[in-house]
Amino acid sequence: PCAGPVESKNEAAMSELVPEPRQKPVVPMKPMGINANLLGYIGIDTIIEQMRKKTMKTGFDFNIMVVGQSGLGKSTLVNTLFKSQVSRKSSGWNREEKIPKTVEIKAIGHVIEEGGVKMKLTVIDTPGFGDQINNENCWEPIEKYINEQYEKFLKEEVNIARKKRIPDTRVHCCLYFISPTGHSLRPLDLEFMKHLSKVVNIIPVIAKADTMTLEEKIEFKQRVRKELEVNGIEFYPQKEFDEDLEDKTENDKIRQESMPFAVVGSDKEYQVNGKRVLGRKTPWGIIEVENLTHCEFALLRDFVIRTHLQDLKEVTHNIHYETYRAKRLNDNGGLPPMTAETEENHESNL
Amino acid sequence: QQNDGYRSLSLSGHVGFDSLPDQLVNKSIKQGFCFNILCIGETGTGKSTLIDSLFNTSFDDPVSTHFQQNVRLRAQTYELQESNVRLKLTIVNTVGFGDQINKEDSYQPIVDYIDAQFEAYLQEELKIKRSLFSYHDTRIHVCLYFILPTGHSLKTLDLLTMKSLDSKVNIIPIIGKADSISKSELQKFKKKLMSELAGNDVQIYQFPTDDETVSQINTIMNGHLPFAVVGSTEEVKIGNKMVKARQYPWGIVQVENENHCDFVKLREMLICTNMEDLREQTHARHYELYRRCRLEEMGFRDIGPENKPVSLQEAYEAKRHDFYLELQRKEEEMRQQFVQRVKEKEAILKEAEQQIHTKFEHLMLMHQEEKLKLEKKRKVLEDEMAMFNNKRASAELLQTQAFVSTPVVSLKRDKDRK
């Protein structure tokens, strides 16, 4: 039951797809701010606990995509990140299997729990990326998938009777695996990141970093950062979304020194100095994955999971999704006059 | 939370996403929180004093008189801070509620105000370029409804008002100035009020009981509704402490003494336990209902003709198309009207021009005639002047001649002349 004045016409003016405002009541709509001094404890700060409890109850969604040529250790890295078999490792293309003609998108979801926090984690794999002879436009299926998730969310959001919690399948984070050539970025890398950095948060990582010495690593990272900057590629965390000075200083350090993270992944444990550690055994020693002197896996893990996970989701929701939505609503409604053909086109867009 | 068919995996070590709630909470702390309270009650039921007591401060609210023409709502926002939590608190007061002789329209301004806040949020949500995460939420999260401690039953006005609001806002009924009613009467009064509310199917806010940590206390509190409160900003010394109280000749009513009134319970429920739930219910239930009604009012449907699901977007586009056609039609109409008006004006002007022309010609004619007449007159005058001059000239001539010649001759001349 809706009380209140009923519009005389149903088709009210829709200048911006906005319903016509009702008669304004006799009260000022924007109240003014007055600072009040507090004496004695009230209990306002308990809202933090209340909020925490509610979020623990509802749980979290997180969708991470991995992109890179096969053999760069994508699945292993994701499994190491989440300490479980969230991604099935491909064993390469055997003779019976055919290399897929195009990039495939495979999304696998699992529920993991830690410390009372339930997370629905979806790992989106992109087998076939960069594996063909002609890799032109191989980012297109990936961009299409990302936009499809935005579209799904938009469709739900725009319903009249909406779900209490819209299922979130949007890609929150895209790990792009750079081959550790030691030279520079490949044209494919640049093309992909140029196109996709505008629609999704891209975190570039240097894969299989155990093939580079410390000096080689530093040089390579510098060169990669330079190349990304020269090509105008804004990877996550993007400079323009730093909320305040605190964020900026923290993120500047990560952008200019740590990224791209040079990582090594492993799901095997070895005994080192009396401790069981994840590592890779080689004739010349054991590479400890979580040892910061050996590789930057721990930095990546802390960055993606322990400090910036919520921010990755928020940037996706508040910025990438909003950009998609605005473009979508504008494209479909703002072009007069509507002829019969444009009407047809619009239907096919939907 | 169901797993929706996802497999559960166990972790072989510490990953670290258990910090997620902290990450989320930290972001909220950075942004700050909003809480909006609407106080409805007749003048003098102790609304302002209670709010002052609840938030331990004296909000600058002038005392109102009983002589308001109609019900007005006055909203004021305050920024409060406790440890690292910043709260934007908005208190909306009803001024003049129940004071009119004819109370028929008393609750309409309140309903309109609540709807207006929903509308503002909806408008923002429907914008193409929107900024919801920085939107100052003015939607009312809780309505404290003050009932006079008469000890009898609910007033008709109270029932009507609460009924018109119960699907729009979380209502917590409160018995104001509860120190004017005795404990035994109070219990009876509370029972009567609750049964009347239930009997009239008024949906008041129920403290949530689904979370084990708070379900017990919330259930108990639900049984104490409506809260009988006393407010005071004055302090009285009891023992060696200064407490908020009201001092009477027969004793001191302590605001924060649970034996004296339910103030502590109200504060506990409203702020410390359920503030977040109140906000969530407002957004997930009341706002969604408003939005649904409003969109349906505008003619949008989720299911179109032939029961095929219609996306809001398709409906938007169809409406936009219709609107555009209507716009074109109106434009054409206006243009036609304009052309018509111009023609008419032109005709009028032409007519006026004609008239002026004829008048002009007529005047010209008259002017010519006058001119001729005057010419004639001038001619006549000139002739007369000429004749007169001739006469004068000859007269002067004669006169000079007369002086020179003999008188006889002049006489002769004179005679001749005569």
From TrEMBL, chain A:
Entry's Gene Ontology molecular function annotations: GTP binding
Localization terms from the record: Cytoplasm
Taxonomic superkingdom: Eukaryota
Keywords linked to the UniProt accession: Cytoplasm, GTP-binding, Nucleotide-binding
GO CC terms in record: cytoplasm
Annotated InterPro entries: G_SEPTIN_dom, P-loop_NTPase, Septin, Septin3
Matches recorded under CDD domains: CDC_Septin
Sequence intervals crossing the membrane: none
Domain Septin-type G: 58-331
Positions of region (Disordered): 328-350
Pfam families: Septin
Keyword GTP-binding: yes
Protein family: Belongs to the TRAFAC class TrmE-Era-EngA-EngB-Septin-like GTPase superfamily. Septin GTPase family.
Xref: PANTHER family: SEPTIN
Protein name as catalogued: Neuronal-specific septin-3
Organism: Chauna torquata (Southern screamer)
Automatic annotation (TrEMBL), chain B:
Septin-type G domain segment(s): 31-297
GO molecular function: GTP binding
Domain of life the protein comes from: Eukaryota
Coiled-coil positions: 335-391
Coiled coil among keywords: yes
Pfam families referenced in this protein's UniProt entry, alphabetically: Septin
CDD domains the UniProt entry points to: CDC_Septin
InterPro entries: G_SEPTIN_dom (IPR030379), P-loop_NTPase (IPR027417), Septin (IPR016491)
Alphabetic keyword roster: Coiled coil, GTP-binding, Nucleotide-binding
Similarity-based family: Belongs to the TRAFAC class TrmE-Era-EngA-EngB-Septin-like GTPase superfamily. Septin GTPase family.
Official protein name in the record: SEP10 protein
Organism: Chauna torquata
